[in-house]
Design goal:
The complex is a heterodimer of chains A (about 300) and B (about 250). Chain A is α/β, with parallel strands linked by helices and about 300 residues long. Chain A has 9 helices and 18 strands. In chain A, helix 8 links the parallel strand 17 and strand 18. In chain A, helix 3 crosses helix 4. In chain A, about 55% of the residues are buried.
Chain lengths: ~300, ~250
């Protein structure tokens, strides 16, 4: 039977909401599901993890060095723990999981499965390649363990009516001091963060200038949406490049996506494939974006978008 | 101080990916290949660090078949001084790549290893972290700013929560994110000069690496197709349609 270890990402003692989704993926594998919380003081995060439906045990590993979740510091501990009979080691496909888990996999001598989007069996998974333009089914070697990050957009969260036992434990390994946390500057924007926003409004080259992007921001604020942009808009200098949606920018999966003045280059479409509903507003009726849009409006964005904003 | 930069030959980001009808992979014949965009950013960063006098020599490295020489020539045109070509025609998975790259890094006695955070073909996002693990060295992934000073690197990382700054001791591995820099356009004289720069060929065996049993791809499929939706004529119709679906 499988025994699955989930790395319980936390920050400031709070469990990441991603873990409830990783548990869903683990339940599809089946077997014992244990969540390990590495923190300075992981009591409250561990208590949250213990409530997640399907979790059989929570391990709380408190150590001052674990405070900032540094990969170089956590990896030796995870590796030690993983050797205790676990068949699977899962982490969320967050920047935390992506940073940490390959370091663990390399130490265990196994090839990691990145971005699991479907579970077919204990060693068989689907994962996206080419920015989701192809889906590959892979068979991972079972021994010594299956090491995988879980793509959060592909799994829903489990409920939290459980009550698994929490076990405080220590892992006796030397930790490196070559990596030091300096600071974390949290996103200051009042708008929802692009990657987790349920609604996103993006603008393209047709906006013509950074000033004109105001129509995008206005609609986004009305919809309480995040704001993105196409590579063309970023390359033209209308908006900073952390707003870029696409294969080389951010890959997002909102419930509702507005592509405004965006022609729909392959590079952009690769970033919005998983959006539930795509709305396109573009002057050019032949624009490729209309091929994938659920709702299309052929119109001048400078009249249509303000009109939409005022009517919502 | 030497810096190693790895560059991977990948299908160009503008190519529309086609899955082979028999599900054995994606079509790579007759399509345009380029340097993985994130590796290009890593190379640009190395060149900038050299221009600032922080690095004295840049070595480009790639793993792959004969065609990867093109990839190395591009890296040399950017400003790498010389290149190492790990020749291997077969498929290479990240852990094997990491073993080979770690061996080259050690052999060269480099202090800094720069590479892209992921390659846009397999999207694995593993190799840099694995090199760091195999060498027990610090890693700073998803870098958007790198400063070198007194045997240390201060790196700003793009994490889900915002921007995280780490200080790491050199030697170290840094993976480049999109916002680290904007790679320069290559000029013809640089492309010409690159043709004369040396490329050393080695094999995995020369590096003492044997490919590990990795993941076995059993099927490659196209993602579920989005069907073409409806075209509305007015903003009012659009709002009504979205309201009808409970989306706004």
């Amino acid at each position: 039977m499988s025994k699955i270890l989930i790395i319980g990402q936390q920050a400031d003692g709070k469990l990441s909401s991603s873990i409830a989704k990783v548990v869903t993926a683990a339940k599809l594998v089946g077997g014992d599901i244990e969540v390990a919380v590495f923190a300075k003081d992981g009591s409250s995060a561990a208590a949250e993890a213990a409530k997640l439906d399907g979790v059989t045990k929570v391990l709380q590993i408190d150590r001052p060095e674990n405070d900032h979740g540094l990969a170089a510091v956590l990896a030796p501990q995870v590796v030690e723990l993983a050797k205790k009979g676990y068949t699977h080691v899962f982490a969320p496909g967050t920047t935390f999981g992506k940073d940490l888990l390959p370091r663990v996999a390399a130490k265990l001598g196994v090839q990691q499965v990145s971005d699991v989007m479907a579970v077919h069996g204990p060693t068989s998974f689907e994962r996206p390649i080419y920015a989701g333009n192809a889906i590959v089914t892979v068979e991972a070697p079972a021994a010594p363990a299956v090491v995988a990050t879980i793509r959060l957009a592909s799994f829903s969260a489990v409920g939290s009516s459980g009550s698994a036992p929490v076990e405080k434990t220590s892992i006796d390994v030397a930790l490196p001091t070559h990596t030091r946390f300096i600071k974390l500057e949290a996103q200051k924007s009042e708008r929802p963060e692009l990657q987790s926003a349920t609604r996103v409004v993006s603008g393209g080259r047709a906006l013509g200038s950074s000033e004109n992007f105001k129509v995008i921001y206005d609609l986004a604020d009305k919809l309480k949406a995040g704001v993105g942009a196409s590579r063309a808009a970023v390359d033209s200098g209308y908006v900073p490049n952390d707003m870029q949606v696409g294969q080389t920018g951010k890959i997002i999966a909102p419930e509702l996506y507005f592509a405004i003045g965006i022609s729909g280059a392959i590079q952009h479409l690769a970033g919005i494939k998983d959006a539930r509903t795509i709305v396109a507003i573009n002057k050019d009726a032949e624009a490729p974006i209309f091929e994938v849009a659920d709702f299309g409006l052929v119109a001048d964005l400078f009249t249509a978008v303000p009109e939409m904003t005022s009517k919502l | 101080m030497k810096a190693l930069v790895s560059v991977k030959r990948v299908v160009d980001y503008n190519v529309r990916i086609q899955v082979k009808p028999d599900g054995s992979g994606v079509v790579t014949e007759g399509v345009k290949f380029s340097v993985n965009p994130f590796d290009e950013i890593a190379m640009e960063e190395a060149v900038r660090l050299k221009e600032k006098g922080k690095i004295t020599e840049i070595i480009a490295v790639t793993i792959g078949g004969a065609k990867c020489e093109e990839t190395l020539r591009t890296a040399l045109a950017f400003g790498a001084d010389r290149a190492v070509h790990v020749k291997e025609e077969g498929e290479i998975q990240p852990l094997t790549a990491a073993q080979a790259l770690a061996a080259v890094f050690k052999k060269e006695g480099a202090q800094l290893f720069l590479l892209g955070k992921q390659a846009i073909d397999d999207d694995a996002n593993q190799t840099g972290q694995m090199v760091a693990a195999l060498l027990d060295l610090p890693q700073a992934t998803f870098a958007s700013k790198v400063e070198l000073q007194d045997g240390k690197a201060t790196v700003t990382r793009e994490v889900d929560a915002g921007l995280e700054t780490l200080e790491i001791d050199l030697p170290a591995i840094i993976t480049a994110d999109l916002r680290l820099n904007e790679p320069r356009y290559l000029k013809l004289p640089d492309i010409m000069k690159a043709k004369k720069k040396p490329i050393e060929a080695v094999s995995l065996a020369d590096l003492g690496v044997t490919a590990i049993a990795g993941l076995k791809a059993t099927k490659t499929a196209a993602p579920p197709k989005r069907s073409k939706g409806i075209v509305v004529k007015t903003v009012d119709e659009l709002i009504a349609a979205l309201k009808g679906k409970g989306l706004i």
